Amino acid sequence: MHISGWGKTIDISAIGYEDSGSTPVKGDGYDYSANWILIEVSYSDGVFQESQRRPWLQTYELATMADGLENVVGGASDCYLSDFLEPNLRIAFVRCSDGLVVAVQYDPENSKNGLDYWTVSAKMNHGEGAELLDDLRQMQANYPER
């Protein structure tokens, strides 16, 4: 997921499950331990550049985010605001007349540049929103619930 605006860029990539050897729990319950996705967040503001990897996203949260974007892009909803278990990553999609606005905020914890948050916002047309949705759906297909 690539977001670029106001001279800043943030890329969010799923690079694996946190515990690739985890065996899902059998039964009716959702297995939180087996479903953490390791995320790489890369940030650049033209002067500073840094990447961090953390298990910030559950598989069901990725699915909910993709569904939220689909609803915004399709006009069924005005906005989506993430509500992830780990609050270090926040994402919003907001519908506007000619597309959508995407906002990402990441708390890097021990950033080398001393920023409290890495933030990027960008306005996208409908086609760019559809491409972003395709990216999220591909990420979801690569990391299904286990």
Q: Can you walk through the features of this model?
A:
- This protein has one domain: Roll (Transcriptional Co-activator pc4, Chain A).
- The protein is an alpha+beta fold and 146 residues long.
- Strand 5 (79-81) and strand 6 (89-96) form a beta hairpin.
- The strands form two sheets. Strands 1-2-3-4 form a four-stranded antiparallel sheet.
- It has helices at 59-74, 126-142; strands at residues 2-5, 8-17, 36-44, 49-58, 79-81, 89-96, 99-106, 118-124.
- It is 23% helix and 40% strand.
- The chain starts with a strand and ends with a helix.
- The chain is built from two helices and eight strands.
The average pLDDT score comes to 92
User: What is the makeup of the main sheet?
Assistant: 4 strands, antiparallel
- What CATH architecture would you give? Roll
In quaternary terms, these chains amount to single chain
- Assign the CATH class: Mainly Beta
What is the overall silhouette?
A: globular
Q: Counting H and I runs of at least 4 residues, what is the number of helices?
A: 2
Key descriptive features of the protein:
8 strands; alpha+beta; 2 helices; 146 residues; 4-stranded antiparallel sheet; 40% strand
Give the gist of this structure.
This protein is an alpha+beta fold.
Helix and strand topology:
Elements: E1 2-5, E2 8-17, E3 36-44, E4 49-58, H1 59-74, E5 79-81, E6 89-96, E7 99-106, E8 118-124, H2 126-142
Antiparallel strand pairs: 1-2, 2-3, 3-4, 5-6, 6-7, 7-8
Helix pairs in contact: 1-2
